[in-house]
Every structure is written in C-alpha cells, then in structure tokens.
Amino acid sequence: MSILILETVEKQANASKTPPSSRQPLRTIAVLYRKGGLRFLLNGIGSACTYWAMHTSVVKLLSFLLPSPVAYIIASVLLAETHFLWTARTILPRDQVRLVPKPCDHQRWKTLVIPASIYAAANTVMTVSFGPGQSFTTQLRDIGLYVETAAAG
Fold first, then answer.
1. For the chain, which residues make up each domain, given as ranges?
2. How many angstroms separate the most distant Cα atoms in the chain?
3. Cβ neighbours for 27, distance < 8 A, ≥ 6 positions apart
4. Lower CB density within 10 Å: C or N end of the chain?
5. What is the DSSP letter of 102?
C-alpha cells in the first residue's frame, strides 16, 4: 500500500490531528518500516540512484556548451519521464508498479515538459540567486541594508 493510503486510514481510525509524516522524516521511516519492512522502506531507491546519476551526467555534459543553470533546466526536462518513473516506483506498491507503462512514452514526456521546466527553473533561481546556505530572509535583510546605505549616501 502507498504511504498516503496508510496515513489516511491511520488518521481516520485514530481521528488525530498529527502533522503528515512527510514533515517528520524519522516518523516516516518508522511508519514505512512498521507497515512493510525493509523492502517497503527502500522502495524506489534504485530508481532514485539511477535518476540522479543520469541527471548529474547530463548536466555535466551540457555544462560544456551552456551555462550551468540552463544545463540543469534542460537536463530536468529531458529526464522528466525518468523522474516520473522514480516517483511511481517510490509511492506505488510493488504489485501496482507493473500498471505504469514502460519508459519512452513520447506523449507522457510531452505532458511532463511544462511542470518539469517550471520546477527546474524555480529550483535554479532559488539556488543561483541565494546560493547554498543562504535563506530568503537573509537575502531580504541584505537587500534592505543595501537600500538603506544607498539612500543615506
């Protein structure tokens, strides 16, 4: 069963107001292990490793020709279907994975192009604009200090 289904059934049975386990990684791991054992816990890990290896390789190759942020966006769009299959293998029970059509479905890829490009562009803007380890509020504070300094001087 999917973790979403398990959590919904559990919440209806307990009528509790606890936050979703996706906000609490340790709780998520405990729920997955308790419901399906180690096999269920590691569901989709192979697909994740494959996707990230492919994504990193494509970004590196495209970075020779294009700026790094553009290469990231293009790689994400090209591998949108692979990301979809990774997600399906992660959230679906093993007996339902076979219902997902095999890769290389051009129509499915065309459907995923817009969401993948929006996600990759937003991710790139946040990473490039703020840099690793810098938060949005830190950037706003720095911008405010710059504006105050420019207005005073």
1. 1-42, 44-152
2. 68
3. 21
4. C
5. P
- φ, ψ for residue 64 (rounded to 5)? -70, -30
The Cα–Cα gap between 119 and 84 comes to 13
Full-model pTM = 0.62
Rounded CA gap, 115 and 80, in Å? 9
Q: What digits encode the pLDDT tens for the residues 69-111?
A: 889 999 999 999 988 888 888 777 778 878 887 778 888 888 8
Query: Are the C-beta atoms of residues 100 and 91 closer than 8 Å to each other?
Result: no
**Cβ-based neighbour number of residue 69 at 10 Å:** 18
Residue 46 tokens read as: 């192979």
Residue type, 49: C
Could you give the angle at the alpha carbon of 53 between the alpha carbons of 115 and 64, nearest 5°? Answer: 80
